[in-house]
Amino acid sequence: MTTTNISQLSSLPQRIKQWGLELGFQQVGIADTDLAEAEAHLNHWLDKGFHGEMDYMQRHGLKRSRPAVLQPGTRSVISVRMDYLPESSAAMNRNLEKPLAAYISRYALGRDYHKLMRQRLQKLADRIANEIGDFGYRVFVDSAPVLEKALAEKAGLGWIGKHSNVINRKAGSWFFLGEIYTDLTLPPDTLADNHCGSCTACLDICPTRAIVAPYQVDARLCVSYLTIELHGSIPEALRPLIGNRIYGCDDCQIVCPWNRFARLTGEKDFNPRQQLNSRQLLEVFAWDETTFLKYTEGSAIRRIGHERWLRNIAVALGNAPYSESIVSALEAKLEHPSDLIKEHVLWAIALQIEKTKKKPEVTSSNAPGFES
Q1: Is-above-0.85 flag for pTM?
Q2: What three-state secondary structure class fits 349?
Q3: Is 142 annotated as a binding residue?
Q4: SS3 state at 128
Q5: Is the pLDDT at 144 greater than 50, yes or no?
Q6: Which of 142, 183, 269, 288 is catalytic?
Q7: Which of 18, 62, 107, 322 is the most buried if burial means most Cβ atoms within 10 Å?
Q8: 287, 333 contact by CB (below 8 A)
Q9: 264 Cβ partners below 8 Å, 6+ apart?
Q10: Is 142 a catalytic residue?
């Protein structure tokens, strides 16, 4: 490195942050590699078995919590935030309140963020190299054993909330994270303070009570895990609690008071595609695999495949109010070759039929739901 380049290093962190903003990131911070506290939290979480079938969470040993083990020579981590909120909380709540609407976690409505952010991070790394010369680095976007939330917290991007998502005081939590591991020694930013206080909104709203304690999420109960990560059968006791959520869950973010500061994304690629924010359950249940692949092209939804897509929708249809059209659609899927699909379809049909045997009880004209 030349003498000129050495003199430039003192201003490099600020320039990296400015370049990041120019590339479309909403925030850039720098963290050191000491994740001892986060490592202890991770090990405690794994020891409790809260990771469920996500074996990859423990497969890589110390690589996840020790950046220099994953990428030798790493001295600093550049952490970035990219906001993705595609619509208001009111719009999301309206969708959740309609039992025949198909609710998809809002991060998955647009283009898959992995490729987009990786390209932007690569451009940021190239910009740094153009300025100081070659340096060692590696780009990550949820693609390797990285404790991205802990790194974001150390980089000053926000604090890890009680629901385990990173929260920013001025922007809420609707954002993606990405990292550049580098061999540059850069001054770290100040650790973000925690501002959750005594609030328990996220714990109280969780449909399956997956947030078993502040800062502790049992993934085995989480709707996002059940509809995305879990490959087999969804436990029967949890199925009625899933409601109409067919891919992921946003409840803990929707209710978070700090998200009143969240702004709609300016990234066009994160806006809803193929009307995925307003599809109906019966409509998407009718998609064959070819149609599914067509409408989820470029989307993170594709990762679960058509079989689990139908599994999830069958559960949601079972949870919907009784309808002959729902029962007919479910019965049509009994010919599907997948035992996984047939199991969930049979459960949904049984639940639909059970609803025909129940009569609503009216005790007073002042009962909830009556209007004067």
Answers
A1: yes
A2: helix
A3: yes
A4: helix
A5: yes
A6: 142
A7: 107
A8: no
A9: 85, 86, 87, 88
A10: yes
pLDDT tens digits along 263-292: 999 999 999 999 999 999 999 999 999 999
Tell the residue number behind the tokens 């059970």, with chain if given: 354
Cβ-proximal residues to 297 (8 Å cutoff; 6+ apart), any chain: none
Q: Which residues contact 233 (CB under 8 A, 6 or more apart)?
A: 340, 343, 344
Is the pLDDT at 360 greater than 60? The verdict is no
Instruction: Rounding to the nearest 10 degrees, give the CA dihedral for residues 117, 118, 122, 123.
Output: -30
252 is known to lie in a ligand binding site: yes
What does the alpha-carbon distance between residue 302 and residue 341 come to, in Å, rounded to a whole number?
17
Q: Give the C-alpha separation, 285 to 287, whole Å.
A: 6
Helix, strand, coil shares of the chain, percent, nearest 5, are: 45, 10, 40
202 assigned binding-site residue: yes
pLDDT digits (tens, 9 = 90+) for 219-271: 999 999 999 999 999 999 999 999 999 999 999 999 999 999 999 999 999 99
Is 147 annotated in a binding site? The answer is no
Any idea which residue has 């897509």 for tokens? 309
Residue 24 to residue 312: CA distance in whole angstroms: 34
Question: Quick one: which of 49, 25, 36 has its CA closest to 116?
Answer: 25
The domain limits of the chain are 3-87+103-182, 210-355
Instruction: Report whether 143 belongs to an annotated binding site.
Output: no
Residue 2 has a pLDDT of 42
Give the three-state DSSP class for 79: strand
